[in-house]
Amino acid sequence: MLHGIPVALGVMEFGFMGGSMGSVVGEKLTRLIEYATQEGLALIIVSTSGGARMQEGIMSLMQMAKISAALHVHQNEANLLYISLLTSPTTGGVTASFGMLGDIIIAEPQAIIGFAGRRVIEQTLNEKLPDDFQTAEYLLEKGLLDLVVPRTFLKGALYEIMDFYRDAPYKRRGAIPFGVQRGSYGLTAEEKMRRRWREWSGASGGPAALAAAGAAAPPAFGELVSSFRRVVAAERGEGEVDVRALVSDDSLLPDALAVARDSVVEWLEVEDAAAEAERAKDKKFLFKVKAP
Question: One GO molecular-function annotation for this sequence (predicted)?
Fold first, then answer.
């Protein structure tokens, strides 16, 4: 949450192998982007990396294309915001892929941002480069960055951008290509329900009950969906259900209802014939995320 605005956030860690991007890093970032797309969230990725991990060879280079493809769906298909935040250093394959694909690209002052190293470029061109070459200020002057913001003001700047984006008029509703999770309850909603279910299981019995609930086999997904529907039906007055039998602590009921309602992705069928023909041709499904 950024001042009450939900966002999907990814942060790279330079302390581990120089923040290099291997197959695991690429998979985690891709899943983050797909999660943000599925949930209708704005995406922020904080980059600090030496580039693709050369120990993994071609597998690390493939992550550049995979992440870029996921971002294409997020930005150009679903019409959602992606903010790229570059810290020092951001070089190599990260700069050549998702680092420079943001709708808005922000860097910290004096951050080193580039692809190849300074000495490699000087030896290739056989000429002396400017002293401020590959710094954030240099890239801002050349038009490769949108903003250079000190870290102390970064949170406020991100909030202003997000607030402006949230209230912008004339937004175009996006579409997710065929193949992304489809249905009222996707994998993301299932994981949320499983975690909340374990918390409820241990609410009445303390740590011992919680440990036992964690050790036991998780309930089937169908049981979770059925339980949430019973809770929502009881709240709407569509049937008498003993909510206390489902949730031992009455104070957890608002959280249960919030998870049940807010995590649902509604898939909208196209009504007019022209849009129906286009949907059949492109195999896309219009979507929206329920407001909290």
Answer: transferase activity
In angstroms and rounded to an integer, the radius of gyration of the C-alpha atoms of the chain is 23
Domain architecture of the chain: domains with CATH: 7-172 (3.90.226.10), 187-263 (no CATH)
Task: Determine the residue type at 273.
Answer: A
Query: Residue 263: which of 178, 186, 211, 207 has the closest Cα?
Result: 186
Short-list 83, 126, 121, CA closest to 103: 83
Q: What number of residues does the chain have?
A: 292
Which residue type sits at 192?
K
DSSP 202: T
Rounded to the nearest 10 degrees, the angle between the axes of helix 58-72 and helix 23-39 is 10
Q: Which of 29, 163, 24, 49 is CA-nearest to residue 115? A: 49
- Rounded to two decimals, the pTM is 0.64
Per-residue pLDDT of the chain (292 residues; tens, 9 = 90+): 888 888 999 999 999 998 999 999 999 999 899 888 888 889 999 999 999 998 898 999 999 999 999 999 999 988 899 999 999 999 999 999 999 999 999 999 999 999 988 889 989 989 898 888 989 999 999 999 999 999 999 999 999 999 888 887 777 777 776 555 544 445 566 666 666 666 666 554 545 554 555 545 555 556 656 666 665 565 555 554 444 455 455 555 555 555 555 544 333 333 445 555 555 555 444 444 444 4
> 266 pairs with which residues across the strands?
288
Six token digits for residue 263: 């995590």
198: exposed, middle or buried (Cβ count in 10 Å: 0-12, 13-18, 19+): middle
